[in-house]
Write a structure and sequence with these properties.
Elements: H1 28-54, H2 61-66, H3 69-99, H4 111-114, H5 118-121
Helix pairs in contact: 1-3
């Protein structure tokens, strides 16, 4: 019997930090952190708005400043998404460069582009 790695793992040790799981991409940590910060800001918003509906004394200004964590979390998550997009583009560009590099095997063209039969080159005869 052979042992197979668990789903989502590669079997090789993760390079970089030991805390990151092997399947995570370059922007995943920012997205997770942004989500957590956003949730903290959302809870703070609910807490600071509640006294307005309960007709009690409002919280001090500092509590309202904590609500701004929603925007900070959103920006962090967006930065993580953009970082992930950039890494995927760099990976795709390097892959396409390695495929079209001289000395690499060429990709066969489609049948319609490589058809060199005389019928394909001759113009169609006009109908009478």
């Amino acid at each position: 019997m052979t042992a197979t790695p668990a789903s989502g793992t590669t079997g090789a040790p993760a390079s970089g930090s030991a805390a990151a799981d092997p399947g995570s991409g370059p922007g995943d940590g920012l997205v997770r952190a942004g989500g957590i910060v956003f949730l903290i800001g959302a809870v703070a918003t609910l807490v600071t708005v509640a006294p307005l509906f309960l007709h009690t004394k409002p919280f001090p200004t500092a509590a309202y400043l904590v609500c701004m964590l929603m925007a900070v979390g959103f920006v962090l998550a967006a930065a993580g998404v953009l970082r992930s997009i950039g890494a995927q583009r760099r990976q795709a560009t390097s892959f396409s460069a390695s495929v079209s590099a001289p000395g690499s095997p060429s990709v066969p063209a489609s049948d319609s582009a490589s058809d060199t039969s005389p019928e394909a080159e001759a113009p169609a005869a006009p109908r009478a």
